[in-house]
Amino acid sequence: MSISKKTIKDIDVSGKRVLMRVDFNVPIKNGVIQDDTRIKAALPSIQYLLDNGAKSIVLMSHLGDPKKDSKKNKEKAEKSGKEFDEASYIDGHHRLAPIGSHLSGLLKKPVEVTKSCIGEEIAQLVNNSSNGAIILLENTRFHKEETSKEASERETLAKELIKYGEVYVNDAFGTAHRAHASTETVAKYLPAVAGFLMEKELEFLEEKIVKSPAKPFVAIVGGAKVSSKITVIEKLLEKVDRIIIGGGMAFTFLKSMGKEIGGSLCEDDQLDVAKTTLEKAKEKNVEFILQTDAIVASEFSNDAETKTVDIDSIPSNMMGLDIGPKSIELFKKALSDAKTIFWNGPVGVFELEKFSRGTIEIANTLAGASGAITVIGGGDSVSAVNKAGVADKMSHISTGGGASMELVEGKVLPGVAALNDK
Ligand code: AMP
Asked: What is the end-to-end Cα distance of the chain in Å, rounded?
């Protein structure tokens, strides 16, 4: 199954100046990269361009949002009476130099990092380059035009950026749901194609989950709130045979069914939505699977005393923080004959060891589901899969939490729509 957009394999890159959007928005603290998954994910496309004789590869990415992030951290520091040095905060959290060095190490090739993402210096660097020189532009979000709501402002930046390339490759799936200058506007002016990471994300999420999932298709949706996942759940109900709902949000569904949930997380303003969703599932003949027991505690703490109780017996002063052993068995059974599994969101407070078992068991079950396509839709479930040490056993782990959710919700991603059709 192939995607409907052109990829780098559909164009000739030999001798060409390539402008490529990557998603190097990695967690970084005081200049130290905490997780390089997204950098590594862009390597196949970069390597392909090098192997196929690109003249130069100009990479662009954002790294956080300097203005927004520093405002937030300044307020935080002020509240706790600490000093805040904005310039050094930005240097340590928003400059791409450490990413350039890391990329250089991975590629075993020099990577030139520029001081800005526009300017004469870059034009000269590009013009003087040959044999696949790699130039990494400074954080695109230092320019307010990158994310501007005004199309004309985005155009202004895009028109500068396109000077550095004859073709445009977008490999930044994680930001494809944003219509920004470097993710969407530039695609109007150059031949625009998907990189290998973008291709893989679309192949799994769009083709194998949204368009034509192999059946039985089982989705697991967990996490804290119904309100943040309801659109995804509603869309999934149109496609799945079974849906497993776990984590904090399960308690809103359980309460809407008249169960006593003690002090468990509940969004009272979503009770009607939960009830309607349960009815919709019934109408569509989709099995809606909720936990039948829970690990309860009276506080969010690894030191808390816990009890395993049936779902009808949650003490009024305790809250459900993980699924219990009966639910683990129930969920495993629901997954056992699946040919497609999509997972987003933990089924318990997995950050705390004491309440992580259910989520880790789900990760291990997916790892053992050899007959199924297993797709992890970004966010906390990615951390859970990594924590369980089974990342390499999944068919696909999305690098874009927000983008993958929007795709499953059936939205058009502007960064994808802007690419050339096959
Ligand atoms: P989300 O970002 O919506 O996927 O939610 C993830 C968060 O949900 C994690 O931080 C979990 O700790 C939290 N969570 C999962 N299960 C529960 C629960 N039973 N009670 C409270 N929070 C939970």
From this structure: 13
